[in-house]
Amino acid sequence: MDQRARLMELLARMQRLSDERWHLLDQPCRAMEDKAWVGPSARSFDGRIHGSLGTLQAELKEAIALLRHKRWLCGPRLKYRRRSTGHN
User: Fold this and answer.
1) What count of other Cβ atoms lies within 10 Å of the Cβ of residue 7?
2) Quick one: average pLDDT of 48-73?
3) Could you give the CA distance from residue 70 to residue 57 in angstroms, rounded to a whole number?
4) How many other CB atoms sit within 10 Å of the CB of residue 77?
5) Which residues have C-beta within 8 Å of that of residue 42, sequence separation ≥ 6?
């Protein structure tokens, strides 16, 4: 299997993982927004859980973008030829 095919397979696996994990922390975030737990510790936890959700989603996006970029770099390259202007 060539490098481009491996990258395509890895990209597909990463996209599935992202789809499965994207909303992983939604339920705890909603519970905190609905005041499931109150007080100073709750505010701290709320900040951490929302921060973790943002970090998770940012890292999933970054991983997919990196794989897409690498796939593009491994793709077939067009060879450009200079057009003849007849002034050689």
Assistant:
1) 19
2) 94
3) 20
4) 7
5) 32
**Alpha-helical segments (H) within 1-88:** 3-21, 26-33, 40-74
Locate 83 and state its tokens: 């057009």
Six-digit token pair at 4? 């481009």
Residue with tokens 């390259």: 77
Nearest residue to 57 (alpha-carbon basis) of 22, 86, 7 = 22
Does the pTM surpass 0.70? The reply is yes
Is the sign of the CA dihedral 70, 72, 76, 81 positive or negative?
Answer: negative
Instruction: Let me know: does 7 contact 71? Beta carbons within 8 Å.
Output: yes
